[in-house]
Design a protein that fits this description.
Elements lengths: L2 H22 L21 H15 L6 E10 L2 E8 L2 E8 L4 E6 L1
């Protein structure tokens, strides 16, 4: 095999290898939001979170200014669960869409 032919063969092998490597780098579009692993969670409206904070303040004797909603989620069509930090103590509150606090318990 001549040196010229060997160089051409090497160039061809490198070119094909580069194409294979580039094809592995092609990105795919991200999945649709509803197909992502994180699901959509409906949080409690601010007024219901505030009702829970006030209920926790009354139940625990902690100043309401020191009670912070940490998270919330919809339990069913009429009920939300609100997790609160009451001066370092975790508390859970259930409240309905009419604004009635159903329960306040340590979390």
């Amino acid at each position: 095999m001549s040196a010229k032919r060997a160089v051409r063969s090497s160039i061809l092998v490198l070119a094909l290898g580069s194409l294979v490597a580039l094809s592995a780098c092609v990105s795919t579009p991200p999945p649709a939001p509803e197909q992502m692993s994180r699901t959509q969670v409906e949080t409690a409206p601010a007024d219901l979170q505030l009702l829970c904070a006030n209920a926790v303040a009354k139940a625990s004797g902690v100043d309401s200014a020191k009670i912070l909603p940490v998270s919330s989620s919809k339990i069913d069509s009429k009920t939300y669960q609100v997790e609160l930090d009451a001066g370092g103590k975790k508390t859970s509150c259930l409240v309905d869409t009419d604004g009635a606090v159903k329960s306040v318990e340590p979390a």
